[in-house]
Amino acid sequence: MATRPPAEIGMPLDEIDTPALLVDLDPLERNLELMATNVEACGLRLRPHAKTHKCAVIARRQMALGAVGVCCQKVSEAEALVHAGVPDIVVSNEVVGRRKLERLAALSKQAQVAVCVDNAANVGDVDAAAAKFGTVVDVFVEVNVGANRCGVAPGEAALSLAKRVDAAGHLRFVGLQAYQGRAQHTRDFDQRCAAIDAACTYARQTVELLQRSGLECEVVAGAGTGTWALEANSGVYNELQAGSYVFMDADYARNKNADGDRFAEFEHSLFVFATVMSMPEPTRAVVDAGLKSMSFDSGMPEVVGSESMRYAGPSDEHGNLDLSQSNTRLRLGDKLRLIPGHCDPTVNLYDWYVCVRGDRVEALWPIVARGAVW
After folding, report:
1. 303 within 8 A of 310, measured Cβ to Cβ
2. Which of 22, 217, 291, 314 has the smallest CB count inside 10 Å?
3. Which is nearest to 146 in space by CA: 201, 80, 66, 226?
4. How far apart are alpha carbons 283 and 90 in whole angstroms?
5. Could you tell me if 335 and 362 lie in one domain?
6. In angstroms, rounded to a whole number, what is the distance separating the alpha carbons of residues 209 and 159?
7. 57 — phi, psi (to 5°)?
8. What residues contact 312, with CB distance under 8 A and at least 6 apart?
9. E-assigned strands of 179-327?
């Protein structure tokens, strides 16, 4: 059951209960518009990844700006988004198990839905579920282009699987899912480029093999926030799936551009709003946001407004701030914005976005796919 929102519309910032997941609407809207404009200028399709925001309001805003739909990773995410009015979803992941596949097939009668496969047995299972519900499910063959997660090998193995999909009575072969996830947070620009060059080569060779065999590859999908421009200029990808650009967490900002500066194409728009709850000593403060308030798998959050104030470490309900190198003077009850290290799992801890413009709450958006991991 969703918790009550930690704020009310019209409320000033300093009255918001904390910890709260704050969205600053001005930079969010600039991020949405910038990516939409850039992808359109490349003549490509944008299908942002909704596993980042898990929010139908944001998904509909992305589609209003030209996105063809969204991606998600789980059937339950797809269900939550479809039920909230999102009409076109690719589950950019494998779905295994009769119950999940039947839910997916049923959902395909309510919206445009596609799924990925990397195993011949799974192709048969997806086809059986679609047949049971009298529907046709769009299918991508996922190719391992270097991420070493899911995905069949490029080339002949991918061709063989695509033929199985094409021959199935209740499936439609759409194209290739070719996401290089490992490249997204590779700090060095040249190393990121090399990883995507290799991914593009695998994808291109597989597309050419499919075409020579008489299989039309309508879509080659992939790309992320850290590399989207590289795939966009590759001549092989035509549907981009970047997701984190909407929020820009601290970890993505640690990537380097070609000139060696921090990656700053998009702005930070997502924050964990926290309150100073204790001042045990002059060089240390404690805030009310710890392990249960944000993800730490990609490092510590950054404190907005003070480069010298450092989030030193969390416990379940607390976060220690190191003030030893800072001239900032905090008081009990002060509120701070923290930029989480990893936005996706941080979002999954909350039921609501508190959306602010300036110093006022403008909207409360439900995170409808929060906890949708099955």
Report:
1. yes
2. 291
3. 201
4. 49
5. yes
6. 7
7. -65, -45
8. 284, 300, 320, 321, 322
9. 219-222, 239-240, 270-281, 284-287, 302-303, 310-314, 319-322
Interatomic CA distance for residues 130 and 257, integer angstroms: 45
Q: Which residue has 């990537």 as its token pair?
A: 255
Closest to 200 measured CA to CA, from 223, 225, 173: 223
State the pLDDT at residue 56.
98
Q: 246, 272, 304: which is the final residue of a domain?
A: 246
Summarised one tens digit per residue, pLDDT across range 329-344 is 899 999 999 999 999 9
| Residue in the structure block whose two tokens are 């879509």 | 219
Of the residues 219, 246, 273, which one is the last residue of a structural domain? 246
Per-residue burial over 186-214, b if 16 or more Cβ lie within 10 Å, else e, is beebeebeebbeebbebbbebbebbeeee
CA 373 to chain centroid: 14
Instruction: Kindly tell me the burial class for residue 88, based on how many C-beta atoms sit within 10 Å of its own C-beta (0-12, 13-18, 19 or more).
Output: middle
Structural domain count of the chain = 2
Q: Please, what is the end-to-end C-alpha distance for the chain in angstroms?
A: 17
- Closest to 334 measured CA to CA, from 290, 292, 289, 287: 287
Q: What is the Cα–Cα distance from 311 to 336, expressed in whole angstroms?
A: 11
Is the backbone peptide bond immediately before 19 cis, with ω within 30 degrees of 0?
Answer: yes
- Same structural domain, 270 and 320: yes
Global pTM value: 0.96
Q: Is residue 353 a part of any domain in this protein?
A: yes
For the segment 26-79, what is each residue's pLDDT rounded down to a tens digit? 999 999 999 999 999 999 999 999 999 999 999 999 999 999 999 999 999 999
Q: For residue 160, is it left (φ>0), alpha (ψ between -120 and 50) or beta? A: alpha
| Token representation of residue 223 | 């790309």
Maximal CA-CA distance, the chain: 72
